[in-house]
Amino acid sequence: MVTPPPPLLRLHPHRILPRLRRFTPGRLLLRLHPKSLYATASTSQAAPTAPLQPPPHGPSLRRGRPTTGQPPEAPLSFSRTFDLAALRVPAAACASLERRLRGHLLNWPRVRNIARLPNDDGDGFLSPPKSPRSSSALPPTAVARREKLAREFNARGFVEFPILAKMSRPAGRTRRETKGRETGGKETKYEKDKVYVVEVLEQGGEDDEDEWKGLVGDEGFGKGAWRGEPTRLLLLDEGHAKRRVDELPEAVKVVLEHEAKHGGPFAYELVQCQITLFYNYWPMNEVLEALLPEGIIIPAGFETVGHIAHLNLRDEHLPYKTLIAQVVLDKNKPKIQTVVNKIDAIQNDYRTMQLEILAGHDSLVTTVIESGLRFRVDLATVYWNSRLSTERQRLVNSIFQNSDVVCDVFSGVGPIAISAAKKVKYVYANDLNPAAVEYLERNIVLNKLERKIEVFNMDARRFVNAMFSSQHVHPVTQVVMNLPKDAAEFLDVFRGILRNRQTGHIAMPKIHVYGFSKAEDPEYDFHERINLALCDNVPGVEMHRVRLVAPGKWMLCASFTLPESVASAKANYITC
């Protein structure tokens, strides 16, 4: 008897294999075709990337029905309409039903599950006919009418008593809504600021009414069941859109049956509605994704300096910089009022940036509030970096002591000097930029710290020599050198800084110097640069990584106590 050959199975790389069965008689061999595999791989590389598919659920600009007849740059072109189903329920039972039906409601960001339409307060429905006894004449006097309205007070009380209306004015938003309705269709500021709107498309038919009667009882159903009674809409999940009553989940039916049995003679109605999400609803990244060409990286964030948004756009973003800036301005109002972009890197001694105003106000003067302190800043003439606020607080809260005397060599407008002055004994602040020194003095007065800070405007080496050679200053215990690009080069000023002091023992100051490093081991690289500047092997250097400035580029802070051998060396800072 001849044994049959083992079965062969051909694998195609573009298919998903089903579960393989093991054949008992013989072995299973897999035969691959490398030629077809290579052809498939090359074809997939040459094929264009498929467009992004919209998410199956939730709000998205790639889903819904857009508003037609609008230019692409108009805000209304971002409006999207979605079909929904909603439960019209009495307002009194709305809160309890929302808690119990939470998992079956819409639950979209920035959209309330409870919708309130203009006629939901009972004004749009006919009141039940009054009995002859109740339709008698109104109370004859104004006092009697006032007492009657006090017992049955509603919005109509404002019409009857203008003085009471003035005393109990509605909220500002309600006034804007009323003003918008009185303009007769003319677009107002409130209508421009709308985020979404809910509209009812149709009411339930006779068949739906019979189904709901069987569910909630034979008490009045539909519009006539709550004539004159306030109602609300509970927006159901979008998966329930265009469903009939019998197609709703059993959990929803059980909740409604329980409410009808134990909550009194309530009526419910399933209505079809639609929700329209306007331009103000969509987040910034989703709007930019719809506006920018496919394949361009969406700008993720920006630095905030007061009311100014500081962008660092790539070269591929520059053709669309005005569009990006307008979206950033729209999505961050009223906090952001100006959007700027850095044109070039910092290359001058004053550390000022060349900025281009893309949107908003033309002024670059702003006020920054940091840790309860106020700083006046002009980005056109001074330097400010909000991303270093955590590092500044680390110095003040964890390193500086109440008895310290701080020497800020590159103070700028004073973020470290003024923050430290709230805690330490005294601060000496210096900067080479005259504009920065002017704003530093303003900020000192603004924060009421004139008695604890002394300001200088000179070169860093002259300033350090003056602080350690003068007999009329407090002994410096902390030195901050926050100039990451060049601070390590100024460390040579400390070599022999105390060689001419005639006093007794002097406590060595602790130096905090900042710098950049692109090395694989940034701590070792920065430590070697410190040793080279001080012409000595400095022990006990504590390294702290401040932040990752760019891929592979770290900003570091090295803290060490100045060695006495370096401070009392005979050589000056020019030669070792």
UniProtKB/TrEMBL annotation:
Positions of the UniProt region annotated as Disordered: 41-76, 117-143
Gene Ontology cellular-component annotations: mitochondrial matrix; nucleus
Key word Transferase present: yes
UniProt entry tagged with the keyword Metal-binding: no
Database matches in PANTHER family: TRNA (GUANINE(37)-N1)-METHYLTRANSFERASE 2, TRNA METHYLTRANSFERASE
UniProt name for this protein: tRNA (guanine(37)-N1)-methyltransferase
PROSITE patterns, A to Z: SAM_MT_TRM5_TYW2
EC number, as in UniProt: 2.1.1.228
Domain SAM-dependent methyltransferase TRM5/TYW2-type positions: 302-564
Catalytic activity as recorded in UniProt: guanosine(37) in tRNA + S-adenosyl-L-methionine = N(1)-methylguanosine(37) in tRNA + S-adenosyl-L-homocysteine + H(+)
Record-stated family: Belongs to the class I-like SAM-binding methyltransferase superfamily. TRM5/TYW2 family. Belongs to the TRM5 / TYW2 family.
Binding-site positions, S-adenosyl-L-methionine: 392, 431-432, 459-460, 482
